[in-house]
Amino acid sequence: MIKLQEIKKTYNKGKSNAFEALHGISMTIEDGEMVAIVGTSGAGKSTLLHILAFIDAADEGEYILEGKDVTHLSDKEKAQIRASQVGLVMQDYALVEDFSAMENVLLPLDFDRIQKRSAKEKKELAKKALEQVDMSEFIKKKCSQLSGGQKQRVAIARAIVNDPKIIIADEPTGALDSGNATQIMEIFKKIKENGRTVIFVTHDKNIAEYADRIIEIKDGCITNT
């Protein structure tokens, strides 16, 4: 599914405060695998995740996705991959608080310029995604009225509504108590069992244990795979 070869990333390149966040990362993630990326704050976890999710680009190295070199795609091409193949879940949910759960989940479908779906088809897909995360009864509720765990469920529904092959999550349980964190990870487990590849960053060793494999990163380098 994913192969990274000697990925390097430097911030403020050419300046006195230049910082190399990734020092030649090489890794492979198999189709249908659930992988945890762990490490301390500043280790390079989020930088790596952003490159995997096409939010940021590497300065050097090679990114192969399903046998295709996607290292030097244009911003438009990367946006198309994000829209069709990658679902992203953030720690802070990144929801529109004044929108209902349904309206938030509809957003990726409304921005999709490739699939020509009717309004009815979009609503059916959004409804199905919310059902998968046990949020059917909260469809019409504004996200500002939901708890943290409920918001993260909506965020996951939004990430899976386009049926992407890869789900990427940045500290998805970081803002939740242990009970809600466990429920969220059980949802990710089901998503993985349905054939998707799940990659998540966490600093919590208990949460990392949900993964098939743990990749540890320290000072911009992978210390184990």
Please outline the helices and strands.
Layout: E1 2-11, E2 19-29, E3 34-38, H1 45-52, E4 60-65, E5 68-69, H2 75-85, E6 86-90, H3 101-111, H4 119-132, H5 148-160, E7 166-170, H6 178-193, E8 197-202, H7 205-208, E9 213-218, E10 221-224
Parallel strand pairs: 3-8, 3-9, 6-7, 7-8
Antiparallel strand pairs: 1-2, 1-4, 4-5, 9-10
Helix pairs in contact: 3-4, 3-5, 4-5, 5-6
Output the keywords:
225 residues, alpha/beta, 6-stranded mixed sheet, 4-stranded antiparallel sheet, 7 helices, globular
Short description:
The protein has helices spanning about 45-50, 75-85, 100-110, 120-130, 150-160, 180-195, 205-210; strands at about 1-10, 20-30, 35-40, 60-65, 70, 85-90, 165-170, 195-200, 215-220, 220-225. By secondary structure, it is α/β, with parallel strands linked by helices.
Helicity level: 25-40%
Largest sheet: 6 strands, mixed
Our count of helices gives: 7
Spans of at least 5 consecutive residues whose pLDDT stays below 50 are: none
Derived from helix and strand composition plus strand pairing, the structural class reads alpha/beta
Mean pLDDT: 93
Strand order of the largest sheet: 6-7-8-3-9-10
In percent, how much strand structure appears in the residues?
Answer: 25-35%
What order do the SSEs take from the amino end to the carboxyl end, as H and E?
Answer: EEEHEEHEHHHEHEHEE
